[in-house]
Amino acid sequence: MIPTREQLEKARHVGFHTYGYFTAFCDLNRSCEECDRIIRFGCKVKNKIGDLQIKRILRICKPEPPKEGE
Question: What is the DSSP letter of 4?
């Protein structure tokens, strides 16, 4: 189901929070299989970039060495 522009604007404003169009669209659509294929491709690219960023952050942020008394 592709939401209307009015539904999209209402979904952006939840309580005191304002979300972006992408988040509002995904919340209203609720199905990746029925999503527009270009938006779905962008979503996959966005998720892949996020995964790579997390992997890099965890690689450069080394765990603290154990303290000498433990």
Answer: P
